């Protein structure tokens, strides 16, 4: 197995273990990632941390040798497989954190962008270099990058295929934070702690309110927020949270 799913406290940890090929994404590996995501969703984990093995790369992208000499239909199915895996990660009911230590290119950056949050070490390098191969991103890069950094920056990064370092990535919003180098699992779990102490119900409603309304007019987005905030009030966690505030104590959320 090239994918390992373990648990560290309240976090599930998905590790890509192919350091000899810079953790490249073969179709088999994509299938294993999908299975690990489903297992994490079914567990009692409160966050999912994604890391790559070795010191050189989070994930250097698709396995290029596997993409050569395929039929048109096979290429389309391959793109849809990658997109479906990223969509599963995007829809995960708990927050996900990609720890980018080293390279995150092509499909590797697309995997990171499908996560809720991204943190990078100072030596991280990111990019979507498909244009240099006569290709374009196929696992969601042309759609998620503009939503993160804006249309103009996304066009420039994708159409030049250039590399973005950690400092620029933080400045333009591609990563949430630069962290000191260290054990990627520890980095991810520490970052996740700021999200894992709250009600899973409220956390999910908050994410849906933002994500579902991104491409909608403000009035439609406000209706989504109204509906989801109303649902949040109906949960046992909301009642517990408000009562704990009145009683000046820490809430005991039960995800109900």
TrEMBL record:
InterPro entries found in the cross-reference section: ClpP/crotonase-like_dom_sf, Enoyl-CoA_hydra/iso, Enoyl-CoA_hydra_C
Protein name: Enoyl-CoA hydratase
Any GO MF annotation of the entry: hydro-lyase activity
Gene source species: Noviherbaspirillum sedimenti
GO biological process, one term: fatty acid beta-oxidation
CDD domains in the cross-refs: crotonase-like (cd06558)
PANTHER family: ENOYL-COA HYDRATASE, MITOCHONDRIAL, ENOYL-COA HYDRATASE-RELATED
Domain of life according to the entry: Bacteria
Pfam families named in the record: ECH_1
Keyword RNA-binding in record: no
